[in-house]
TrEMBL record:
Name by which UniProt lists this protein: L-aspartate oxidase
This protein's encoding gene: nadB
A matching Pfam family: FAD_binding_2
Xref: InterPro entries: FAD-dep_OxRdtase_2_FAD-bd, FAD/NAD-bd_sf, Fum_R/Succ_DH_flav-like_C_sf, Fum_Rdtase/Succ_DH_flav-like_C, NadB, Succ_DH/fumarate_Rdtase_cat_sf
Family: Belongs to the FAD-dependent oxidoreductase 2 family. NadB subfamily.
Residue stretches making up the Fumarate reductase/succinate dehydrogenase flavoprotein-like C-terminal domain: 428-507
């Protein structure tokens, strides 16, 4: 069957997916897969803000230079410059849509909106909506998307695989509905905006983390993945074993928050001249080292020395959340621990978000654009989402004509697995990755992880082959293979660089080069 190619399928409804759908829908019809879990995903929990050159005393060259330093030699400078240059226009677009950024009411303010500073940045360039920027941007974009006649929202479908035509081009996705029924969504072009892979780990900063499902689905069609070994751990997640994950924004340190060990001693100035505002990889390792030295389960982040009115004004969400858990941050320090936060690697794309698979695009955390290198600088993530969503939307404005629809076989496979068995296997995966492939690694641990994941993979493969697919089983199937690819790249990098710190490898010992891998590495 020959069908027209006008429709674009977008998989994922965080900032990247919503922005692309909204920017493109005046030109082509868009189907947006936005499951309910996206409301609790990474974009909504982005507290700090969006980095962009907005103040008159800031400049593009400085933002580029800061990003290159944070990326530890692995950034693609062209991608960095492209992203930073497009940043101010992306912020203007959000302002025009009505995003309620926090104003700066001072008569002498250099910019109408308050700009804060975060780790790695040499200037105040983080525009924010109090301490809930992600929520403000998401709510604004969702309202606009829901009102647009050219966008069809699919909240009850989950993509479990991509479709391809006879030429290998991506032509939509295989999806499951809430009852496990299969639906094929055909599209002339498909955009992955499905998030990163922090959910491979036991502790994350998001209550609904993704596990790199989109990355692996792209790899199944032949796309290369890049820099998977660089998983960022946010230094300051609220330590509360009984409660849901909650991020303590880097802006808290940007406004003067101090890290102290359990003895109450400040430890960052002795380790880095930038102290608490050093890049995240440095701060996370420093906290991890303090915890190992003291045998503790957290350190303290103290802002109690700030005026109570300042805390209420800048961090109302954090303050209210901590109060609900019995913590008054205006009077006592916050217990914090590093947690998996952001994937700096992903599907290789160009500056339009196009992958190496025809008619398949990737934007946001699922993509590896070259912006982040070996370590993402604070608040460059939402910036990347916006810039590449708008770039991909421009590239996708014209459809490519008719094509032959794929006719994938859908073999019948038994009954669905029990939810408990899938959750147990996913828990084993998270335990292996957290114990062996986290903030600090070593050769023996990586070898152990490889062996354990191989054995786990045999059991997961049996589940996948003998049971009808469910969304949870598909996620496990994808995440297990992505974890194995991550370990392969971590073993291959014979140096410590950025977020990849191996006790058995010296820092910066090799020529700074990105790492690439495909699914064939597991054959």
């Amino acid at each position: 069957m020959t069908i027209p190619a006008e429709r674009v399928l977008v998989i994922g409804g965080g900032v990247a997916g919503l922005a692309l759908a909204l920017d493109l829908a005046d030109h082509r019809p868009v189907t947006l897969l936005r499951p309910a879990s996206d409301d609790a995903g990474a974009s909504r929990w982005a507290q700090g803000g969006i980095a962009a050159v907005l103040a008159p005393d800031d400049d593009i060259a400085s933002h580029v230079a800061d990003t290159l330093v944070a990326g530890a030699g692995l950034c693609d400078e062209a991608a960095v410059r492209f992203t930073v240059t497009q940043g101010p226009a992306a912020i203007d677009w959000l302002l025009a849509l009505g995003v309620p950024f926090t104003p700066d009411p001072r008569p002498e303010a250099p910019y109408p909106y308050h700009l804060t500073r975060e780790g790695g940045h040499g200037a105040r360039r983080i525009i924010h909506a109090a301490d809930a920027t992600g929520r403000a941007v998401i709510e604004t974009l969702v309202a606009r998307v829901q009102a647009h006649p050219g966008i069809t929202l699919c909240p009850s479908l989950t993509a479990i695989g991509l479709l391809h035509d006879a030429d290998g081009a991506c032509r939509g996705a295989r999806c499951l509905d809430e009852r496990g029924g299969e639906t094929l969504l055909l599209a002339g072009d498909t955009v992955l905006a499905s998030g990163g892979a922090s959910g491979l780990y036991r502790h994350t900063t998001s209550p609904a983390p993704t596990r790199g499902e989109g990355m692996l689905m792209a790899a199944e069609l032949g796309a290369r993945l890049m820099n998977l070994e660089f998983q960022q751990f946010h230094p300051t997640c609220l330590y509360d074993p009984q409660g849901a994950p909650f991020l303590i924004s880097e802006a808290v340190r940007g406004e003067g928050g101090i890290l102290r060990n359990l003895a109450g001693e400040r430890f960052m100035p002795a380790l880095d001249d930038r102290a608490e505002l050093a890049p995240r990889d440095i701060v996370a390792r420093a906290i991890d080292a303090q915890m190992q030295h003291e045998g503790g389960e957290h350190v303290w982040l103290d802002i109690s020395h700030l005026p109570a009115a300042t805390i209420r004004r800048l961090f109302p969400t954090i303050q209210a959340h901590c109060l609900a858990r019995g913590l008054d941050i205006a009077r006592a320090p916050i217990p914090v621990v590093p947690a998996a936060h952001y994937s700096c690697g992903g599907v290789v794309t160009d500056l339009n978000g196009a992958t190496e698979v025809a008619h398949l695009y990737a934007i946001g955390e699922v993509a590896a654009t070259g912006l982040h290198g070996a370590n993402r600088m604070a608040s460059n993530s939402l910036l990347e989402c916006l810039v590449f969503a708008r770039a991909a939307a421009r590239a996708l404005r014209r459809p490519s004509g008719e094509w032959q629809a794929p006719r994938p076989a859908s073999p019948s496979r038994g009954t669905p697995p029990s939810a408990a068995s899938v959750a147990a296997l996913q828990g084993e995966l998270g335990e292996i990755m957290s114990r062996r492939v986290a903030i600090v690694r070593d050769d023996a641990g990586l070898a152990k992880a490889e062996a354990q994941l191989r054995e786990l993979g045999e059991r997961v493969t049996a589940e996948w082959r003998h049971h009808a697919p469910t969304a949870a089983l598909a996620s496990l199937w994808h995440s297990l293979r992505l974890a194995r690819l991550t370990v392969r790249l971590a073993q291959a990098r014979r140096e410590s660089r950025g977020l990849h710190y191996n006790r058995d490898c010296p820092s910066g010992a090799a020529e700074p080069r990105p790492s690439f891998i495909g699914l064939d590495a597991l054959d």
